[in-house]
Amino acid sequence: MPVSVLSGNAKKKKKKNGRQTVDVAKAVVLGAVLLVFVVFGVLGNILVILSVLVHHHWRSVTHYFIANLAAADLLLSSAVLPFSATSEALGRWVFGRSFCSVWAALDVLCCTASILSLCVISIDRYLAVSYPLRYPAMATGRRGLTAVAALWGVSAAISVGPLFGWKEPDPEDETVCRITEEPGYALFSALGSFYIPLAIILSMYCRVYMVAKKGTKTLRAGGKSEGVEMEGVILRIHKGSSLQTEKQDDVAETARPKRPSFNLPKLLKFSREEKAAKTLGIVVGCFVLCWLPFFLVLPIGSVFPSYKPSETVFKITFWLGYLNSCINPVIYPCFSREFKKAFHNVLRGGCLRAAVPTIKPQGHVSAPAPSLRMYICVHQRRWRAASADKSLCPGARRS
């Protein structure tokens, strides 16, 4: 949880009439750059939240977790980054001692909540992959709300330590707002806010990747899926659909006789899910790249003062951490066509149109898109695949 700070080096700056001077040119340039940084984070995360809220077919636990991640990043971008940017531009803290403590705690709260949201999303995807038939019953709205409340509770517990005295003595100079480097708290916050969630995220994603790789290999080989759980596996991180429809799809898959022949629809579906798993991998990779430097520098510098990095290195690491809260809205549309379409819809004022749900008869399962249906039909005719249910296209012959 990077906190934009000014160390004792701030005292070394030249003073005029008892006041620290400000490099106007540097302040303007740095302030403009950081302002773009802040605005980008705020608008991007608002766009993610609106995309989830106005699309009724995204009313799933997974998308609510994504919205919660965006909410944590939005709170950080709007309530923490402006003060960090101001301090960096001016070269000192100008908001008073009391607000420094509150602001630092809010910083830790938002950053920890953002990281734990990624952790919860990875667990959600693991459950969807490992137990696809039972997942709709497990991923209920109540349990999702409980998970969100729990992650914010843990984040609050980690952030309030310094407010209750678990910190170093405050510096005499009120223009210095310094991050808490008390060794015990530094280790505690690093473990709770980063290393434990990181271990969970990596283990969950490895499981998702192995199942995706195994499932794709099995389908391409044209053999039977090993185990009922592999049928209709759901890997989506961004692909949303109603839980009722997913559940009906899974039940239908278990009721159909398993055929040793090559199953094109399942392969196409699993290919989409594999891409969704790769999107999750990109999110996790960016998370590690942005946060690992800071959570290496902080505990090492606190426990071993002789290895404490320079102020410039420290600032680079904590702004890398801030960057993570701004790049997630970029990852979604770049690697998820569903989010790209949703963003375009929101930006074009299509919120009202998207908010009108499509009512389908009970038990109705949407047919594939015309282009996909035609593609499947060609191969149905070629392979004359036997099927107990009605063919996807009229005129397709059955054996």
From TrEMBL:
Which GO-annotated molecular functions does the record name?
alpha1-adrenergic receptor activity
The source's superkingdom equals: Eukaryota
The UniProt keywords, alphabetically, are: Cell membrane, G-protein coupled receptor, Glycoprotein, Membrane, Receptor, Transducer, Transmembrane, Transmembrane helix
Under the heading SUPFAM superfamilies, the entry gives: Family A G protein-coupled receptor-like (SSF81321)
Which terms does the UniProt entry file under GO BP? adenylate cyclase-activating adrenergic receptor signaling pathway; cell-cell signaling; phospholipase C-activating G protein-coupled receptor signaling pathway; positive regulation of cytosolic calcium ion concentration; positive regulation of MAPK cascade
Localisation per UniProt entry: Cell membrane
| Entry's transmembrane regions | 27-53, 65-83, 103-123, 144-165, 185-210, 279-304, 316-335
Mode of membrane association? Multi-pass membrane protein
Listed GO CC annotations: plasma membrane
Indicate the segments forming the G-protein coupled receptors family 1 profile domain, all copies: 44-332
Against InterPro entries, the record matches this protein to:
ADR_fam, GPCR_Rhodpsn, GPCR_Rhodpsn_7TM
Task: Return any one Pfam family short name.
Answer: 7tm_1
Q: Which PANTHER family match?
A: ADRENERGIC RECEPTOR-RELATED G-PROTEIN COUPLED RECEPTOR (PTHR24248), ALPHA-1A ADRENERGIC RECEPTOR (PTHR24248:SF16)
Family statement = Belongs to the G-protein coupled receptor 1 family.
Q: Give the protein's recorded name.
A: Alpha-1A adrenergic receptor
Organism name: Salarias fasciatus (Jewelled blenny)
